[in-house]
## 1
Amino acid sequence: MTDVQTKPEAETTCAHGRPGAPRRAVFAGAGAVGAACLLAACGTSSGGQSDQGFTNDPIPAGSKSPGNDSSGDSPGGNTGGAAAGVLAATADVPQGGGIIKGNYVITQPESGTFKAFSKVCTHQGCDVSKVDGGVIFCPCHKSEFSIADGSPQSGPARKPLPETKVKVDGDNIVAA
């Protein structure tokens, strides 16, 4: 009978003379491939959508997508008025105050003068929450804006709220 001796697996050597080297190389390569896949999945794409145009008010299912409606009410189309382009009824906007409707703050600084501003604070993008005492308030960092021109009155905001030109059409305020 022939006596055959085998080496235990731990003593196996590769061409370089190091024990277990081929197995480590395979595992290291697999780990590198896995890490590359993970990083690719977590990366950002330059060809996708940007943050512009996003809002805290998503478009309801079945509504028109952004840009398909020229109503002027919001980037997503008519979300508040009964007729296309109607932002609010004149009777709904108090003199010396305003309302928040759709994507806008609609104000009446003087009798018969109506203004519309973006409801998004220029400081860090929070939505303003109320209009009171001639001032538009942002709850996030306490910025305050004028109802007459959207200019910052106090708080960290330094830029005015963007204005949208409006006009009165009968009993309604519409985008001009």
## 2
Amino acid sequence: MLEVEALKLSGGRNIALKVPDHLYPQTVRFYRDVLKLKQNVRPDGQICFEFGETDHRSTLWLDRTEATARPDVWLEIKTKDLDATRAYLLSEGLVVPEKLEPLPEGFPGFWIVDPAGLVLLVSLHGE
């Protein structure tokens, strides 16, 4: 059995809030106007915020969704070995869902679901 230390798993810099359509404008306003986080808008219109200290900054993505009735948090885990990490996580009983939000073509990563039902993206360091 693989040891997690050998896989060098670590928290990634991306946090995604899946926000129901009807709560999206208030949520954007909260992070922008109330918490006063620096907002960035991608060319495709997706909104994200700088989250954390300068040298440990994460990106907080606000994803508008019609698929959920309540907000959800998705996190990122980084690894240097996707195959070994997948095998290890499966051996620990974690679910690797077949159908979830599609990843970009050729993206080196996969989704898992923790015991509480939260979604995590497992991706390669440097991606």
